[in-house]
Amino acid sequence: MRRVYFDHNATTPVDREVLEAMLPYFSEEYGNASSIHSVGQSARKAVEQAREQVAALIGARATEITFTSGGTESDNLAIFGTVAADERPRKHVITTQIEHHAVLNACQALQAQGVEVTFLPVSADGVVEPDAVRRVLRPETVLISVMHANNELGTVQPLEEIGRIAAEADVYFHTDAVQSAGKLPIDVKHLGADLLAISAHKLYGPKGVGALYAGGATRLKPLLYGGHHERDRRPGTENVAGIVGLGKAAEVARKKLETEGTRVAALRDRLEQGLLAAIPQSRVNGGRARRTPNTTNITFSFIEGEALVIALDLKGLQCSTGAACSSGAVEPSHVLMAIGLEPAEARASLRFSLGRANTEDDVKFALSMVPGVVEHLRKLSPLWKQPVAAQ
After folding, report:
1. Segment (H or E) for 253
2. Rounded CA gap, 245 and 247, in Å?
3. Which of 39, 52, 144, 178 meets the CB 3.0–4.6 Å disulfide criterion with 31?
4. With the CA atoms of 217, 223, 227 and 229 taken in that order, what torsion angle do they form, in degrees rounded to the nearest 10?
5. Would you place residue 382 in the very low, low, confident or very high pLDDT band (cuts 50, 70, 90)?
């Protein structure tokens, strides 16, 4: 059976160049990067090369990159680390209602510790208004955390404006760039970000490794305690093979950024337009905003999204109802609820996220299959009423 994978926002396959770069570090290049002998220093050289590669992807200096276990740890280190480093008795954090749970749950944990958190609403297209950030600033505000691109909608936030607001108020600014790194050009200085999180497995690297950019003057307390690894910010023996994979993935993504973005955006647009034309009572969520080039989120009214995902999977097409970390959740997507969808509409929405291996034939395959499956599921719904054709 043919298989077409349209769930690249959940994870991506490891690029062949990335795998080849990693393989030696599982066997012959097995050194501990903290050892001073030649075997260890060979590993250290590989780690530092990867640090340079990651820094180049986001316009940073290598000394500003800390390797972590992934995007979630990077977000947690940024949020808890900056708040813990601030010595004011009262502390306040600003974020949005559509953040990834790595940010939302971290902020909720801060609330339990007595930190005040403002969760800003977003527009119907999933974009936060910069002036809304300005309005809720307080003298005790420690951190602003706004994601670069949303994982469910693909909508891109106005980080440059928010970064300027943060700088004017002398407040740290953190962004979760897990879904934008490798898809959109990133320059941390242009964005005004003090902290930025990425994850390898979202840009054709291995799972279990990520990085946090922290600007040179950023004060950050570690989450973990142990050795003096990663400039005292993240103790523990480095995952050399994983770090090498992240570095190579960043290098490859940087080279492919412009051409691949244009190519995959054209495929996404054909898929989106074809589905809207073929399926009545369907609409794109966040479609009027700037989006990552590979992502579309579409509501197909009067169906259950999970039933549609399963039915499509049985026919060879993989997509999702939202964030992979929320798979199987009973509650509707917090992102779709935040942009104003009713629970039933949120549950009837699917995310299609395309990638490097996808082709025009893959889009044709999806367009030949999805409308029929949606029609079948709607016939099973007591709420569905077939639209009457115009006379």
Report:
1. helix 240-278
2. 5
3. 39
4. -50
5. confident
Residue 340, CB-side half-sphere exposure with 13 Å CA sphere: 8
Which pLDDT value is given to residue 391? 45
Name the residue among 172, 183, 118, 117 with its Cα closest to residue 150: 183
Q: Is the pLDDT of residue 324 over 60?
A: no
Is the CB of residue 54 less than 8 Å from the CB of residue 246? yes
Residue at 138: amino acid letter? R
Closest CA to 230 of 245, 209, 249, 259: 209
Q: Does the pLDDT value for residue 328 go beyond 80?
A: no
DSSP state of 336: H
State the DSSP H helix or E strand holding residue 300, giving kind and residue range, or none if neither. strand 295-300
Residue 91 is encoded by which pair of tokens? 């502390």
Residues classed as catalytic: 325
Rounded distance between C-alpha atoms, residue 332 and residue 291, angstroms? 22
Go through the domains of the chain in sequence order and give each one's CATH number.
Answer: 4-10+257-379 (3.90.1150.10), 16-253 (3.40.640.10)
pLDDT in tens, 8-37: 999 999 999 999 999 999 999 999 999 999
